[in-house]
Design goal:
Blueprint: H1 2-22, H2 41-58, H3 69-74, H4 80-100, H5 103-107, H6 121-145
């Protein structure tokens, strides 16, 4: 049951991320910084995709994804179409990975120490979902501000 709930939340929010990125009227605005906002929507999007592809795709789904976290925040002007494609690929990774998990897998300790202590895979997946929602709100705010 929890797996389906987590899967539903990731699908909802990753599809909302796609809508947010598509909603920028001028593609260059995805990368604009205004006032005290240091991370534009494009970099937040790349960060979310890197995060999800690392902790869900590579670790749980064994996709072989290799993260370059500094690049998530330094890369600029990735075309909107490429961001959308990366979101679509991430949705597939999330769905394929979560479909392979069992409820027992959620109770198991997550294979990496991420927050300096052990946690269950289920707890960490819920955290990753809330992390996505947090940055999704920032992207929505950025789009409306710009």
């Amino acid at each position: 049951m929890l797996i389906e709930t987590i899967k539903s939340l990731f699908n909802r929010d990753l599809n909302k991320l796609k809508i947010e990125i598509e909603s920028y009227k001028n593609e260059s605005q995805i990368w604009e910084i205004d006032k005290n906002i240091s991370n534009p929507a494009g970099n937040l999007c790349l960060h979310l995709l890197g995060n999800i592809n690392t902790y869900i795709g590579a670790e749980l789904g064994k996709t072989g994804y290799i993260r370059d976290r500094p690049l998530e925040f330094s890369l600029k002007n990735t075309p909107k179409s490429e961001l959308i494609s990366k979101i679509d690929q991430t949705i597939l990774v999330v769905n394929n990975t979560l479909d392979s998990l069992t409820e027992a897998d959620l109770e198991a300790i997550y294979p990496q120490i991420v927050f300096e202590k052990e946690m269950t895979t289920g707890f960490f997946l819920v955290h990753l979902s809330t992390h996505l929602a947090y940055h999704l709100g920032q992207i929505n705010y950025h789009r409306r501000l710009i």
